[in-house]
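Q: Hi! First time asking for a complex rather than a single chain. Here are the components, and I think there are three in total. Is that enough to go on?
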Amino acid sequence: MEVKTVCPYCGVGCNIIVVSDGNKILNIIPSKYDAINYGTICIKGWKGLSFAESNKRLKKPLLKKGDGFIEITWEEAIKIAVKRLKEIFEKYGPDSIGFQSSAKCTNEDNYLMQKLARQVFKTNNVDHCARSCHASTIEGLISTIGSGAMTTSIRDIDNSELYFIIGSNTTEQHPIIGARIINNVLIGKKLILADPRKIQISNFATIHMRQYPGTDLALLNTMANVIVEKGLYDKKFIEERTENFEEYLKVIDFYDVDRGSRITGVEPELIEKAAIMYAKSRSIIFYAMGITQHTQGTENVQAIANLAMLTGNIGKKGTGIAPLRGHNNVQGASDMGALADFLPGYKRVYDDEGRKIFEKAWNTQLPSKPGAALNEMFDLSRKGKIKGLYIMGENPVISEPESDLIIESFKNLEFLIVQDIFLTETAIYADLVLPSLSFAEKLGTFTNTERRIQMVRPFLSPPGEAKADWEIITMIAREMGYDWRYSSPEDIMNEISSLVPQYSGLTYSCIEYNGVQWPVNGCKGTEIMHTQNFTRGKGKFIPSYWKRPDEYTDKEYPFILTTGRLYYQFHTGTMTRKSNILEREAPEPFAEINPDDAKTMGIRDGDCIKITSKYGSVNIRARLTDMVPKGILFAPFHYFESPINRITNPKTDPVAKIPELKVTAVRIERCYP
Amino acid sequence: MRSMIPVKSRIIDIYKETDDIKTFIVEKTIDEDPVPGQFYEIYVRDAGEIPISIASWNDGLIFSVKRVGAVTEKLHKLVKGDYIGLRGPYGNGFPEHRRFTVLIAGGIGLPPARSYIEYWLSKGAKDMQLLYGARTPSDIVYKKLLDYWSNYIDVQITVDRGDSTWDGNVGVVTTIFNRIKNKDADFLIIGPEIMMKFSIIELKKMGVSDDNIYLSMERRMKCGFGICGHCNIGRYYVCKDGPVFRYSTIKDIPEAIH
Amino acid sequence: MIYKLKKEFLQEYIDDLIKNYEVWGPKKIGNDVIFSKLEKGSEFTDERTILGPKNFIYPPREKIGEIDDKEVIVIGVKSCDLLGYRMLDDVLGIDPSYAERRKRVHFLNFVCTEPCQYGFCTTFSGPRLMEYEMQFTDIGNYYVIECNNKNLIGKRFEEGGENEIKALEIIMSDFYKKMPPLDVKDLDKKISWNDPKYAEFAKRCISCGACNFACPTCFCFDTYDDNGLYREWDSCILSGFTRMAGNINPRPTLDLRLRQRFMHKLKFHYENFSYYLCTGCGRCIETCPVRIDIRDFIRGV
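A: Yes, that's all I need. Here is the structure of the assembled complex.
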């Protein structure tokens, strides 16, 4: 058989056709779908699917016994889960349980997970990893333009004249979008890159600004200053479509190009040139974690929206703002309200009217207080406030900052459920492990970075007794006494499309072959948003002054550590590290260091270095490369062998609660393993 | 036809040579006898396959393995009586002994040199000389064998870094090239490419012709018989056309000795 | 033997094959055309698929030692792919599971009568092969069928002769006019270790490996353990392809790896087998996210 489905890695959402005999993959074929991947896929699509066939997949529910696990039946597992969760719920109250949903799971899975938290356990303690990647995008874009998603489409890249990439290693993290940009630059279009690292796409940059980490806001404000100064802003657009422009002018006035240059370390001429080019062209801004993972993440995102509005580069063909989503379904999981402060469709939990819709549909009273964010859940369990945790498809021991504290927090829990496809670094701490299905074995939908809702279809039979996440959650809800009657993901989608405005009227038959971009109306999608009006009505300029990152270098910690991902690995490696070729390509952790810095410190390529921050130390191999500027270290966070998030800065953006993973002050010394 | 299915073979004995090198004596489950300089693919459960040169054979096959990667790590954890998988022997092996031969071995290059020395000693050939370079005195393998061989052939040892126990030569292997007994000889070089590179430079200075220098090359080899495509140096596959090459054959290939 | 078959009977012919064999052929799925197991002849299209059916004789991933004993007919394979598999035979032919599959998979190829966007097959053997089991060419109302396997002759096949051959040759000469061959004479000698194109391509190559995976002639594989030994298609564009324990890598940078790909196809393999390891199928261009074009490379040499 063959199915058309969606690659399970990044947010690009490449369409692939998998041919299988039900037990093994016979062939993987990139779809010619020109809206996204035009017959191409990256190495993760070609080589990263074999994790699903791995013999190490979880096949039966596991119960902790002593230091190990014993296999139990599903009946026992659900009974135990519900008995323990109920006990905690009754003893400590609704907010004593946390639910972690997953950007790797389908919209349907995520919708049910948050419904389980809210309807059954009466808590908003439900969140997922968007918290650590694009929470600031949601806040930043909703406050300015009214919708926290990419405003345009991947196909629309071809209509643009200029690409401004800031804080995104596009060819490594969103390779097929990166490739589309390169193809356009090769035919004469322009590229402005703002990134401290000399990443691959810098080969094609018309201008490359290498700003100091954590100075993005100053850079964006300075570009705006230049644009205003030169009179290159779109007066008509500002007048007709936006508000609060005067306030914006006041703030950016402060960022004359010399000041901007001093703060960011970028030559004034470069900033000027970049600003003029951006303003004069039909431009799309691409950004990712380099913008969002900061204590000023929300303000960074707002500054991007401001810049786009200032030049009228939004709501038209070939323009817009493109937050590049890390996971296949981080957009969808957010849409589904797997967030502590949002109900499905981005209704604030404290918005009475929004809540009423769901109270009526779910026949219950819903809590109006925002729940605990992903990283707050661990704090709360350490403080004894959260006693039970249900983690679906997340691996916080590797992905979240200060991982030692997370492990410590697990010890405070009375019950920890981990639902995953492998026995992950997090799952080993669980009291109960529930084996779930990967994208290869289940039906549902993913929503990609351009808001495109696409079908995911099974092509392998489930390993052992593993079950789909939505099915497991439904079993738990029913055991809790709720009459959930979902017999297929389609039933769930029908409920979603009746309640979530962006998905209004959507049915599986609409996306049988190609997906559609929300907001949808029935089967009709929206390629470019904000064309006539912004989702919030008028676009609002929200200016902010740049603040120094929470951490900065000093005598004791003279380096800045910034973290990220590698092309060959994905997130905590649960899937990629089980895929032979991908693991072979990037088998071990390393920290990039500038050769000049290394020389001063007597460090050679491959030497063991110990990186120490306020939060702890990690031993890791040094990799000498001028990709990183002096004074900066870069390390990927995929590896349990050198869990870099043990030492990253847990301070968060006060609004979006996203940790500042991109800027941690550290010192280094040689180590001898 | 060449099968890629490993043959299950029992580990008869294990000796610790140095901190990171162990010698494994493995049941000879494959009838075909190797020739000196050939290698086998060794399969370690839950780790994978790696090519390892044969060091010696009689009742069993003897391999000395340095712990450097995931597979060797796992192999080092095995104990007497455990099983591994074997395929081979593969490769062309060293040329036949035809005249005075100087073996230049660095580090873990000694085990393949051993296969040559033992084989030709057993045939009565004594016109050989061994130059062996190790990192430190504690990295020297086959200490007893080296003593034994020196009864028949000239054995010269040097270490990169000495210690209090060491009264021999200190320096890389080329620092003992002045002890080479016969320049009109075949030279077999087995060791890291950096050592090959400098050895060749010195040998050239001594007037040795490219045709008389043989290199035992190392590449990533997954199949062992020229179909997996990993180990090519230009048109040659190290597993099939090598691992031993005349220097004159590969010297013009830019990525041969990098 | 030469036969002809009225075009309207092709479906029926495939239906007959399906009665006796497992038959796979190109089928349209939405915008895509892929090799799919055919349930009935009407599903068949002779459109070009994005990947050839290499996986039938050489699966992307397989357990080592597992031998498939299924007899399969793959109809609608393009000549460029089929030619590639004959090249695979020269290398992989000594592998028992490959050899077994090769015996049991029958490829019935369709000759292209119009050039495709990226192909340059006329540079090598062209769209019509000299060796085949059964080769179909669309000459208007009929398919001309060149047949070397009597067992697969259909009941509606009519005997063909001079006229059909003539029709074939006219179509072919027209095809060659539309797709003039590239000059590959002495390419093996002219190709340079230091061509600046390697570095130029390396600037934009995103190391996806598609040029290898889509190539009908690429044979390299890696082996690994997952409770037993497996092997899977590998790509020489990846750094781990040559990296040894201890991080020693004879091809540490992307330009060297791209060089290996071009030189292997156009020099090393030629030196060993006297033919270029390329059939001009153009699949590596089509599946390359950044459109690295082997035709540009060849023209530049």
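A: Chain B touches chain C at residues 1-6, 43-50, 68-69, 71-72, 85, 192-193, 218-220, 222-223, 225-230, 232-235, 254-255, 258 (CB under 8 Å). Let me know if you'd like any chain examined more closely.
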